[in-house]
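Might you be able to check the backbone structure tokens below? Thank you kindly.
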Amino acid sequence: MAKTRVLLLLTFGVVILVGLSVITLQVGRFGSVAAASDVMLTGAIRSGSGEKMQGVTVSARLPGKTITTSVFTDADGEYYFPRMEPGKYKVWAQAVGFENGIADVDLANSITRQDFTLGSRESFESQMRGDEWINAMPEDTPQDQKMKEVFHMACMGCHPPSVTLKDRFDDKGWANIITVMSRISTMGYDATEDSQPNPLMEYYKEDLAAWLAKGRGPGGSGLKPKARPRPTGDETLAVIREYDVPQAGTGLPLFDDGSLWSEGAPSKLDFKNHHAIDGTVDFDGNVWFSDDVNLNPFRSVGKVDWKTGEVTNFKVPKKDGSGMAANVHDIITDHDGMVWFGTEGKLYRIEPRTGKMDSFPAPAGAEAGGMMAVDGKGGIWSPGARFDPKTGAWKVFVNPIRGKNMQAYTSTYGIAADQDGNSWVSQYPLSILIHHYLVTGESENVPVPKRDNPRYQLFTGDDRKIFDMMGGPLQQGRGVPDQYAVRKPAAGPGPTDALWAPTWHGESLVKIDIHTKKTTVYSVPWPGVGGYQAIVDKDGMVFVVFTDGDFVGKFNPKTEKWTRYDLPTVGTEAHGIQLATVDGRTQLTVPYFAAGKTSKIEFRTKEELAALKAETRKTAQAR
């Protein structure tokens, strides 16, 4: 088959093997398969005083579609979208502390320009991300600092601060909210007056309510909003596509989902927002997500066509005969490009292109699904079991975390599998990982160092005794102030001796040598956030999703430097993060558990952006 000539800048050849035939396509790096009619959108953002604004988020959406594409302005205050199909788009530009710029733009020409001038905004707390919210709350006195630590532990485990703090209540109102919240599970579906309260929340209810009213009471004098610096440099190179996944075949209305920051975060109580807990990317760049809502009759996992936004649903029926779809947590892609998840006592494998789904029942004593990982030898791990897709054999392991000096109650919240075929299972909220050895079948506890937290010194006497009550509902919180509470770790891919563990409490990333067990702790430069899951790409870059902050951080182990990529939506409560190498490049997906969407993140290089700018200017001059 003949090759197609390269007609567009930033295109590349992709070779696909089909049987014995070789097909060569020309595909736009940051767009769909290039069409002659595709158009480009560009423009400049200035402040009311005429200053160039770098790091402004600019989003575009074609009404009637389920895709929102976002880019960021560069050092010249200019933005450049990837090529898009023609149409009449809604385009909006946003920066914390500024009014929104919104326009209807008809993309009919090869290049369309839309400039914005953003006026300053006096009251901007509704625009803030979770870390900005928590850092704006009172901490002037030791009591304030103490209550902020309690808030971290008790109130940020399941709700980002942009949701928790967006409304105002007096002391009594906050106390009533704490009373209710102390009696519900993490999902909030089973609260009753007779439910056992969370000891931590019950113990500090009055003090915590007073602190909350100080910052978010009717007067609100204690809140000190401060916008963090906007993205700069490499932080502005991300291209983020967000796909609506609220329910089968239906998209959320524009601006009803946290994409317009001045409206504040979306409501977590709205069930249409609860349909993407974890996600992955297949080798064609399509996005997959798991549906972790129990009240769902149509989908266990979904596939999003990255070019059209079309969702294909896959349903595993619950065993109870209700007709409901079984809920799924983790979903991963293996080294061969197959998609895996587990539910109802079985592992499931989907061939992404054909949709063919196979199931593999777990033996007695093995857990299928929940938290999952693929190891360097191709094995699929659940918390206490490994499945070999080549042989169909299962191997079951025992959790050894029982001892007089350890809390009796814990739960698995994350699993990584390394190059040697072994797994590492986090034991939230404890600072311990379980290490399962593939060859010997043995298991051991691997401790994570204690956290050096100055605020722990604020807790004395009975205030420390409350942290000994680690059973039942207290586990729903973040742990105790001197622990890191590791969540979902990552290892690999490829030959590497490192395991990377994000900490839900402690604002750190922990590196563990998989052979020596030596630990190294790296600080996260953004206070007030919880690291939920880590993932490592082919270049050894470590990506961490920060649930409370609506952003992804990239850690470079060689330079020990962080790069922050803000998500275009606030109140996402983004949980999972997975990646794949697509056409030689890293692509990420981050699902929004509280905003009814899932996202795909790609990264332009500085050279590609410079070439795109040059082409745009040349074409504009020729018109």
In short: The helical segments are 130-136, 142-155, 161-164, 171-181, 199-203, 205-216, 462-465, 606-622. Residues 606-622 form the longest helix (17 residues).
